[in-house]
Amino acid sequence: MLNLPNILSCLRILLVPVLILFYFLPMPSASCWAALIFVIAAFTDWLDGYLARKWEQTSAFGAFLDPVADKLIVVMALIMVLFKSPDWYILIPVTLIIARELIVSALREWMAELGQRNAVKVSQMGKWKTTFQMLAIACLIYYKPLFGLPVFEIGVALLYAAAWLTIQSMYYYLLAAWPMMRNKG
């Protein structure tokens, strides 16, 4: 239970309050530090899964902990971004992404109870969704232009791409679960 992949997932959970603290610090470099913390958390998301598979350290606890850590850091980061930029064009993709996370998490739990966990396992589209989402959030947290690039605007564009992939991947998860939903009602 206490292996490096699970420790990395726990670290991601512990980074949530650190991220919040740095995001709201009243200093000019706060957004830079907060973005770096988020990037570290996003990297641990990739690394814990990679190590668990490579070292054959997958476990039921890890299968529970990893998505909780992922959803927690992403949802909190999206709420923080929305707090600082309370605009409709940020609210729409944030709402879609959070709603999808709740729906798919509940669907996975229900399918696991039916012994059909593999019917809704992570797909390649889900991995692309996560990649776009993490890049978007890092840009939105950083906020300021970098080397003349409009980082926030790039983040908004990536957030819309992530929202589109979010809706598509949710559709495929629901499609995969539909036969069980129809039969088990």
TrEMBL record:
UniProt catalytic activity: a CDP-1,2-diacyl-sn-glycerol + sn-glycerol 3-phosphate = a 1,2-diacyl-sn-glycero-3-phospho-(1'-sn-glycero-3'-phosphate) + CMP + H(+)
PANTHER family: CDP-DIACYLGLYCEROL--GLYCEROL-3-PHOSPHATE 3-PHOSPHATIDYLTRANSFERASE 1, CHLOROPLASTIC, CDP-DIACYLGLYCEROL--GLYCEROL-3-PHOSPHATE 3-PHOSPHATIDYLTRANSFERASE-RELATED
Any one GO biological process: glycerophospholipid biosynthetic process
Pathway assigned to this chain's UniProt record: Phospholipid metabolism; phosphatidylglycerol biosynthesis; phosphatidylglycerol from CDP-diacylglycerol: step 1/2
Pfam families (alphabetical): CDP-OH_P_transf
Top enzyme class: transferase
Signal peptide: none
Similarity field: Belongs to the CDP-alcohol phosphatidyltransferase class-I family.
Catalytic activity, EC: 2.7.8.5
Location relative to the cell: Membrane
Membrane topology designation: Multi-pass membrane protein
InterPro entries in UniProt: CDP-alcohol_PTase-I (IPR050324), CDP-OH_P_trans (IPR000462), CDP-OH_PTrfase_TM_dom (IPR043130), CDP_ALCOHOL_P_TRANSF_CS (IPR048254), Phosphatidylglycerol_P_synth (IPR004570)
GO cellular component: plasma membrane
Keywords: Lipid biosynthesis, Lipid metabolism, Membrane, Phospholipid biosynthesis, Phospholipid metabolism, Transferase, Transmembrane, Transmembrane helix
Protein name: CDP-diacylglycerol--glycerol-3-phosphate 3-phosphatidyltransferase
Highest rank taxon of the organism: Bacteria
PROSITE patterns for this protein: CDP_ALCOHOL_P_TRANSF (PS00379)
MF terms in GO: CDP-diacylglycerol-glycerol-3-phosphate 3-phosphatidyltransferase activity
Residue stretches spanning the membrane: 63-82, 88-107, 128-145, 151-174
KW Cell cycle (keyword) present: no
Organism: Methylophaga aminisulfidivorans MP
